[in-house]
Write a structure and sequence with these properties.
The protein contains 15 helices and no strands. The protein is mainly α and 332 residues long.
């Protein structure tokens, strides 16, 4: 386990894995057909995909704000949307997708609320994956006959892996603190516990789950629009079975931002639906490009920064005005 942790944290190891997987995929690609697909794509469908994915980011940010509000972070909806877009934008340049999650957690919080903010991101990510799997199964059920058995098995394996990860996380959290005294746990664990308890309350879960279904529905719709842009004749049900396993595999900390893992997974899984490796790779590359374009508002948010005064400055201004008014009203 120690060796695996060191490898997962090694930038060079991730680069090697990404390069190796891309090299394997490249051996199966017809580059002439790939160039033709890039030049003959429909810009209208791609523009629609960018718009839909952009809308999904807004919905996802509003959904995350429910967790922030439950954890008493004190972030407004506008702050949550800004932090969410900054997180999606920075994901394009960080070696792991978790880096973008940490970025949005840091931007949305202040001193004393960092731990609770990070905990809300973990909750948001876990529940978003659950919604992704649920929407995937809904897509499969709508047209089971069009989905090959291998893809149904892949979605089932992703569902089982996610359920096992959640179960292990719950067990570790419940058993871990019992081995230590309250003094050893400290305020950090208490903040984590408070954020988890508030975020796992039934009203919060039902609300975030409902918004999450809309969020992931838009993600699937964007994927379908990308497929349409390159005339990829893939039923929506097939995308429902493929998208969740691929995105979950791409989150594994073994590559640079999922590069190589994502392409290889699409080539493997879409191949069962009759999609050529060239078209599957083209679909994967365009998906990454659409994500990058939709996340550009995050760059604008970084450049502009917050225009509203911080709560600390507002408090200081209120205190100073109070002191001034008191000195004026004080009799000589």
């Amino acid at each position: 386990m120690a060796i695996l942790r060191r490898l997962a944290g090694s930038w060079w190891f991730r680069l090697l894995v990404s390069a190796g997987l891309l090299a394997i995929v490249a051996t199966q690609i017809d580059f002439h057909a790939l160039r033709a697909g890039l030049t003959e794509k429909s810009w209208a469908w791609l523009a629609a995909a960018v718009a839909v994915l952009l809308a999904s980011f807004v919905v996802g940010a509003l959904r995350w704000h429910v967790f922030l509000d439950a954890a008493r972070i004190g972030s407004t909806r506008r702050d949550a949307v800004r932090a969410y877009f900054i997180g999606t934008f920075t994901t394009n340049f960080l070696p792991t997708q978790l880096g973008g999650d940490l970025a949005r957690a840091w931007v949305a919080s202040g001193e004393g609320t960092r731990v609770r903010s990070i905990t809300t991101v973990v909750l948001d990510r876990a529940s978003a994956l659950a919604c992704l799997i649920v929407v995937g199964w809904i897509g499969v059920i709508t047209n089971v006959a069009a989905v090959p058995g291998q893809l149904v098995a892949a979605l089932g394996a992703a569902t089982a892996a996610f359920a096992l990860a959640v179960l292990l996380s719950v067990l570790l959290f419940r058993l871990g603190p019992r081995r230590r005294s309250p003094k050893q746990l400290g305020p950090v664990v208490q903040d984590v516990r408070d954020a988890l308890v508030s975020g796992l309350a039934k009203p919060v879960l039902w609300r975030t789950f409902a918004i999450g279904l809309v969020f992931q529905g838009l993600v699937y719709l964007a994927a379908w629009l990308i497929a349409r842009s390159i005339s990829l004749d893939v039923p929506f049900a097939v995308l429902g079975a493929v998208l969740a396993p691929v995105l979950i595999l791409a989150m594994a900390p073994i590559s640079i931002g999922g590069l190589g893992v994502r392409e290889g997974s699409f080539v493997l899984l879409l191949g069962y639906a009759g999609v050529t490796p060239t078209n599957a790779t083209l679909f994967s590359l365009l998906s990454g490009a659409v994500f990058a374009l939709a996340s550009l508002p995050g760059a604008l948010a970084l450049l502009i920064g917050r225009r509203t005064p911080s709560r600390t400055s507002e408090t200081l201004q209120d205190r100073s005005s109070t002191v001034e008014s008191a000195s004026i009203e004080k009799p000589l």
